[in-house]
Amino acid sequence: MTQILKLYTKFIITFVLMFKKILFILFILVATTAVAPEVKAQCSMCTISAEQGTKNGNTQGKGLNSGILYLLAIPYLLITGIGILWYRNYRKKISSPALTTNN
């Protein structure tokens, strides 16, 4: 009976800790979403440059778009690389011979 009580207590503690983490993540998402409408798409100089460039027939808008895509892609590539390394190391730990038992 005490074994069941210990397992139940461990489950409750784990559940409460996960619930706190989930609430924290939800709070951050809601706070970020609440602030997002106030964010401007570009600085004032970039906006003026893009507007005047397209009026005069220049292709500066394409350059701005390319720069924005470049700045957007770098963090995603870094996160993807870290994720791949993390996954490989995790798989190595799981497939190590010390963890497997051959009976």
Helix content: over 70%
The biggest sheet amounts to: none
Total helical segments: 3
CA-to-CA gap between the ends? 31 Å
User: Whole-number average pLDDT?
Assistant: 78
Task: Note the overall shape.
Answer: elongated
Fold blueprint:
Blueprint: H1 2-35, H2 44-55, H3 60-94
Can you summarize this structure?
This protein has 103 residues and is mainly α. The protein has three helices and no strands.
Task: Provide a descriptive summary of the structure in words.
The protein has 103 residues and is mostly helical. 79% of the residues lie in helices and 0% in strands. The chain has helices spanning 2-35, 44-55, 60-94. The radius of gyration is 25 Å and the shape is elongated.
List keywords for this structure.
0% strand; 103 residues; single chain; 79% helix; 3 helices; mainly alpha
